[in-house]
Specification:
Blueprint (H helix, E strand, L loop, with lengths): L2 H62 L1
Keywords: Membrane, Transmembrane, Transmembrane helix
Length: 65
């Protein structure tokens, strides 16, 4: 293998690694976004549930009086 081939080989390797990095980066970003969305949805749902439970509890107390 002469220098030219070595350089070409290294360049191809770097290009492949770059592609890999891009794919990994995209996956990480997607996962991150998904995690944020999930946490937001869970927070909203839990607050809604809590509000609903509190309302029901409040109504029950009112009915008893």
């Amino acid at each position: 293998m002469d220098r030219h081939h070595v350089r070409e080989y290294l360049f191809n390797m770097l290009r492949k690694e770059n592609w890999l990095k891009n794919v990994v980066l995209k996956l990480v970003i997607k996962l991150f976004a998904l995690t944020i969305w999930m946490s937001v949805i869970i927070t909203v749902l839990s607050t809604r549930m809590l509000q609903h439970l509190l309302m029901v509890h409040h109504n029950n107390n009112n009915n008893q009086h």
